[in-house]
Specification:
about 500 residues; disordered N terminus; 11 helices; alpha+beta; 15 strands; Helix Hairpins; 6-stranded mixed beta sheet; disordered C terminus; Beta-Lactamase; about 45% helix; 4 domains
């Protein structure tokens, strides 16, 4: 065989041997995601010699380095991911809440260590339908619906259900159910738009919270029942007392007027004292009846249109005697063009009599009480101010509570039952009005009520043209009562 023939026979073998490094470089480049080499590799077979351009070898070395760096980075990410998975598993196993994981088919695939403590059983006992079977039969539809909503529709649900807890105690016959808060959270990936999804469930024992809520509800119910019983008792006693009191007052007035014959000076004095005491006790009984009706929601308003000026005469006549005895001047200031208002005129008179009586009672001799009325847009503003002893912020905060008085029994200087402001507050509320009190010890008290011109339940919410209430110029404490609930039904 000639040398040329021998060289021709070696060419395929030599070419195959020479291609091996190139294929390795190309494989590394493709594995590393390289699109192309920076230079063209040219190989010529000339006997056993293989010529590769220097630039191609440099490119191969660069790609190889990139591939190894990428591989190292991937291994580092895998280690970090494994560390995060271990931390997550540690967190799940040591959470107080029980953690459950369900796959897209609704099968339980994970139960944390605390799940056995929550239900008093082994974790394997919760597999299959173990959780749903432990749910109270009355709460089971809610549990199944919430779970299906999370698994099929991808909605997060938070429910409260009763679930059975096993108790390994002697004599334990009836199952024990505890309140459990269940939070179903779907496992949604970015590419998944439609269910079913996997679900993570967090379960927490809320039995203590439920017991506390029940005690609060029971206490509130007991307080309401006690308040209702008190109001009913006051109403019954009031009716029973008013009948004989009317007779006492009526006959004592007849005796004082001489209808039954002329009385001696001593007997006339006794009859006057009987009449005075009877009227006082009758007023107390009437206030008790009004307060009981307001609290029971049975106070009926007889709304009609009337002039605000019509309130002045009757109210001044009733309080004039008390004002003269204490040497207190009552000054009335009426604004121009007062509108007719719709309301219960008798109830409005009661409001003003109570406020005027309090202002006179707590004023010093020679003091002045100012009664002003003016229009404020679609409302009527009535203010009664005195120059009396005033009140501090603590008293203002409790003003309007039934039977509350600023002074204790041992220090009382003023008579009263503590029902006057309670009745005022209730009647103003029944008229859909507002009540504001400003006071400071030693500088007097100012009480402002605002009643809607159009009457209760028909108030027009239009503030166009309403004169704004300016803040008090003095440093008196001001207490704006929050709007109470309407008691009349």
């Amino acid at each position: 065989m000639s040398s040329s023939a021998a060289e021709r026979q070696k060419t395929p073998e030599t070419q195959n041997t020479a291609a091996t490094p190139w294929q390795a470089v190309r494989g590394i480049a493709l594995a590393a995601g390289a699109a192309a080499l920076p230079a063209t590799v040219a190989a010529w077979v000339n006997g056993n010699a293989l010529m590769v351009s220097v630039s191609a070898l440099a490119a191969a070395a660069s790609v190889s380095a990139y591939a190894f760096a990428t591989l190292a980075h991937m291994r580092g990410n895998q280690a970090e991911t494994a560390l995060q998975a271990d931390a997550f598993g540690h967190l799940v196993e040591h959470m107080r809440d029980a953690v459950f994981q369900f796959n897209a088919a609704g099968e339980l695939t994970l139960a944390s260590r605390s799940s056995g403590d929550l239900f008093g059983c082994q974790k394997y006992e919760l597999a299959g339908a173990g959780l749903s079977e432990r749910t109270h039969v009355l709460d089971r539809p809610l549990y199944m619906t919430a779970f299906a909503d999370a698994r099929h529709h991808g909605n997060e649900r938070l429910i409260e259900v009763r679930m059975r807890r096993d108790r390994d105690e002697p004599g334990q016959v009836a199952p024990e159910f505890v309140w459990v808060e269940v939070n179903f959270s779907p496992i949604r990936h970015a590419a998944e738009e439609r269910g079913p999804f996997g679900v993570i469930a967090l379960m927490r024992d809320i039995s203590t919270r439920k017991q506390t809520e029940k005690r609060i509800v029971d206490a509130q119910k007991a307080a309401e029942e006690a308040s209702l019983a008190k109001s009913q008792f006051l109403a019954v006693i009031g009716h029973e007392l008013r009948t004989p009191l009317n007779a006492i007052v009526g006959f004592s007035d007849m005796m004082s007027s001489g209808i039954g014959g002329t009385l001696t000076e001593t007997h006339s004095e006794y009859a006057g004292l009987i009449s005075q005491s009877g009227h006082h006790l009758l007023d107390v009984v009437n206030m008790l009846l009004d307060m009981s009706r307001i609290e029971a929601g049975k106070f009926e308003l007889h709304a009609a249109k009337f002039e605000p000026e019509a309130l002045v005469g009757p109210c001044i006549r009733i309080v004039s005697k008390a004002a003269q005895e204490k040497n207190v001047e009552v000054e009335v200031e009426l604004g121009k063009n007062l509108p007719e208002i719709i309301g219960d005129e008798r109830a409005c008179r009661q409001i003003l009599i109570n406020l005027l009586s309090n202002a006179i009672k707590f004023s010093e001799s020679g003091g002045r009480v100012t009664w002003s009325m003016k229009r404020l847009g679609q409302s009527l503003s009535i203010t009664i101010a005195d120059q009396g002893i005033g009140m501090n912020a603590d008293v203002l905060a409790r003003l309007g509570e039934p039977f509350f008085q600023a002074q204790s029994t041992a220090q009382r200087r003023y008579e009263g039952t503590g029902l006057g402001m309670s009745i005022v507050k209730g009647l103003v509320d029944l008229h859909d009005g507002t009540l504001k009190v400003s006071s400071e010890p030693g500088r007097g008290t100012s009480v402002t009520i605002v009643l809607p011109v159009n009457g209760p339940e028909t108030r027009i919410d239009d503030d166009g043209g309403i004169t704004k209430l300016h803040p008090e110029t003095n440093t008196a404490h001001s207490e704006q009562w929050s709007e109470p609930k309407r008691m009349a039904k």
